[in-house]
């Protein structure tokens, strides 16, 4: 039976396959040298062949969605992730799989001997399987890349909206650039967290650096202000240019009693007064 | 059925909600508080939710109601210690609890209650401690 | 082996509490951020309460889902209640049937990534929500 044939081929020839494959990789990816050690290549190729050997008995049409293929899928996911981090491209990563074809086909040729039917069947089976695995690797590579890019974007967002402690109990957040919903989420989360950590009662949101205030931006601001209020922190919005004040009124946005100031200095004066009066009581 | 304990601290009442409440329990709390406010000539109520990892519309409405009922019975209410994740979720849910005074922690909550009772601030405005 | 799907009854107030705790565990297992956990648990509270209170009791079906290698949690709140006669009205913010149905639906919609509602008068209501990691 076809499946047993491949299992045998793999079991009989693991060592030769592994070294032939490693040679193929070295030729196909000369730039790989330096980013990845020979030892790592050896480990990965060996493990892949073992996993393939275990799963190939269940191969059918290149369908790798079954539970028998879970270990090998997970291995490839881990491989993709580390390739992303090591700076490889998706082509180079997929080459890992595709370069095993040549050694495998050669081994099949030897085992099939003069039997043309067996030769054709097995090569087709292996081609379908490796193509599926290769595609899976590319997909996971792309996903891992996306995750890293998203994380970096988030970190950049956090960096570009630094929460500054102006005084005891007073935090300031200079908002720069457009306020979209993704940024608002990140800002809200880190801001609220800082409020808890510092026990700050007053937060000054400085929107001098926010170019346009339309309904959406006003809504995002309002969400931030409301969340802060629910937690028990007071909010002052500074950097409100006359144009923005007009927009807010025209939009009918209810800032729920939040004081607005034209600049950060005025906002700070007010904040100090408010915290000062608390102390006096 | 279990009850949420209401503690007295001078002329203030303190309620600490730590358990994941069934709706019935929340309603019972509202009842108990109203009765206690009346019985004890309370001037202020502190509701501590720093241990709550979730506040939904039911609990939100309960807090609003307690605040309103207390006011009618002559007491101010301050909601204390809402967690960031809860605040963000409540806002997204569409609840802003207008008219409910809030404070970061117990100490500030009590200071705020003091100021509210001493008539320095109007509790109807969005007041924060 | 970890369970990938399951069910929980929504036939009492206690069940609503249990449903919240269940969803908290599931979102924790999937590694959701604290805010995302809270959003999902809160949506669960709203929808479970609806099913129990207005839907005359029902069931919560949960499932770990995957799409393009993103993992997520899918929740279906199914009840056998009277159904919602005017869906557009029900999904308008602040609308209430006199029983407070309004906020639960529209509010929950904002807390999740995918929201689907299917309701027939006299034939129950099914609300499906998904949150991706």
Largest sheet report of chain C: 5 strands, antiparallel
Structural class of chain A: alpha/beta
Number of helices of chain C: 4
Mean pLDDT of chain A: 85
The CATH homologous superfamily of the largest domain in chain A is named Globins
Percent in strands of chain A: 5-15%
Low-confidence stretches of chain A: none
The quaternary structure here is heterotrimer
Please write the CATH class name of the largest domain in chain A.
Mainly Alpha
Across the major sheet of chain C, the strand order is 1-2-3-5-4
Q: What is the end-to-end distance of chain C?
A: 21 Å
H-E order of chain C? EHHEEHHEE
How helical, in percent, are the residues of chain C?
A: 25-40%
The tally of structural domains of chain C comes to 1
How do the strands line up in the largest sheet of chain A?
Answer: 1-2-3-4-5
CATH fold-level assignment of the largest domain in chain A: Globin-like
Question: What do these coordinates show?
Answer:
- The complex is a heterotrimer of chains A (281), B (129) and C (133).
- Chain A has 281 residues and is α/β, with parallel strands linked by helices.
- Chain A contains 10 helices and 5 strands; from the N terminus they run ααααααββαβαβαβα.
- Chain A folds into 2 domains: 2-155, Globin-like (Orthogonal Bundle); 164-280, Transcription Regulator spoIIAA, CATH 3.30.750.
- Chain A has a 5-stranded mixed sheet with strand order 1-2-3-4-5, sandwiched between helices.
- With 129 residues, chain B is an alpha/beta fold.
- In chain B, α1 packs parallel to α2.
- The longest helix of chain B is centred in the first third of the chain and has 17 residues, at 23-39.
- The N and C termini of chain B lie far apart (34 Å).
- With 133 residues, chain C is α+β, with helices and mostly antiparallel strands.
- Chain C is 39% helix and 30% strand.
- Chain C has a 5-stranded antiparallel sheet with strand order 1-2-3-5-4, with helices on one face.
- In chain C, α1 (13-29) runs antiparallel to α2 and α2 packs antiparallel against α4.
- The radius of gyration of chain C is 14 Å and the shape is globular.
- The model of chain C has no long low-confidence stretch (mean pLDDT 88).
- Chains in contact: A-B, A-C, B-C.
- The interface between A and B is medium-sized, with 23 and 29 residues.
């Amino acid at each position: 039976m076809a499946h047993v044939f491949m299992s045998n081929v793999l079991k009989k020839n693991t060592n030769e396959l592994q070294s032939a494959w490693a040679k193929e990789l070295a030729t196909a990816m000369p730039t790989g040298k330096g980013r990845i050690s020979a030892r790592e290549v050896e480990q990965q190729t060996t493990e892949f062949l073992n996993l393939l050997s275990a799963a190939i008995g269940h191969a059918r049409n290149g369908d790798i969605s079954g539970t028998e293929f879970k270990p090998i899928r997970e291995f490839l996911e881990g491989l993709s992730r580390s390739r992303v981090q090591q700076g490889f491209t998706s082509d180079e990563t997929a080459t890992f799989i595709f370069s095993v074809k040549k050694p495998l086909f050669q081994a099949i040729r030897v085992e099939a001997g003069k039997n043309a039917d067996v030769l054709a069947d097995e090569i087709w089976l292996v081609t379908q399987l490796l193509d599926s695995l290769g595609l899976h690797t590319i997909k996971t590579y792309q996903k891992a890349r996306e995750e890293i890019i998203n994380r970096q974007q988030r970190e950049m967002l956090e960096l570009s909206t630094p929460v500054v402690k102006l005084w005891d109990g007073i935090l300031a957040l200079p908002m720069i650039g457009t306020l979209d919903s993704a940024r608002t989420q990140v800002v809200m989360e880190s801001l609220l967290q800082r409020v808890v950590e510092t026990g700050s009662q007053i937060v000054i949101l400085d929107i001098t650096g926010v170019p346009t205030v339309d309904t959406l931006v006003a809504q995002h601001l309002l969400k931030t202000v409301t969340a802060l209020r629910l937690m028990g922190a007071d909010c002052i919005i500074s950097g409100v240019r006359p144009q923005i004040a007009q927009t807010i009124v025209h939009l009918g946005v209810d800032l729920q009693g939040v004081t607005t100031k034209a600049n950060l200095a005025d906002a700070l004066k007010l904040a100090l007064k408010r915290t000062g009066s608390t102390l006096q009581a | 059925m279990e009850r949420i304990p209401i503690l007295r601290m001078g002329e203030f009442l303190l309620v600490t909600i730590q358990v994941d409440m069934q709706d019935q329990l929340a309603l019972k709390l509202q009842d108990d508080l109203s009765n206690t406010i009346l019985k004890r000539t309370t001037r202020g109520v502190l509701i501590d939710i720093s241990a709550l990892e979730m506040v939904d519309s039911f609990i939100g409405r309960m807090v609003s109601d307690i605040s309103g009922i207390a006011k009618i019975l002559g007491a101010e209410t301050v909601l204390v210690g809402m967690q960031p994740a809860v605040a963000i979720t409540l806002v997204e849910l569409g609840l802003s609890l207008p008219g409910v005074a809030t404070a970061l922690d117990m100490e500030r909550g009590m200071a705020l209650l003091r100021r509210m009772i001493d008539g320095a601030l109007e509790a109807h405005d969005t007041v924060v401690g | 082996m970890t369970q990938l799907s399951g069910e929980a009854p929504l036939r009492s107030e206690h069940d609503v509490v249990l449903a919240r705790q269940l969803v908290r565990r599931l979102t924790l297992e999937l590694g959701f951020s604290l805010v995302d956990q809270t959003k999902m648990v809160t949506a669960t509270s709203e929808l479970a309460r609806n099913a129990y209170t207005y839907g005359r009791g029902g069931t919560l079906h949960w499932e770990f889902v995957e799409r393009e290698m993103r993992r997520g949690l899918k929740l279906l709140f199914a009840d056998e209640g009277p159904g919602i006669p005017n869906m557009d009205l029900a999904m308008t913010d602040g609308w209430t049937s006199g029983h407070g149905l309004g906020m639960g639906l529209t509010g929950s919609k904002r807390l999740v990534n995918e929201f689907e509602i299917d309701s027939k008068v006299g034939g129950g209501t099914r609300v499906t929500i998904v949150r991706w990691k």
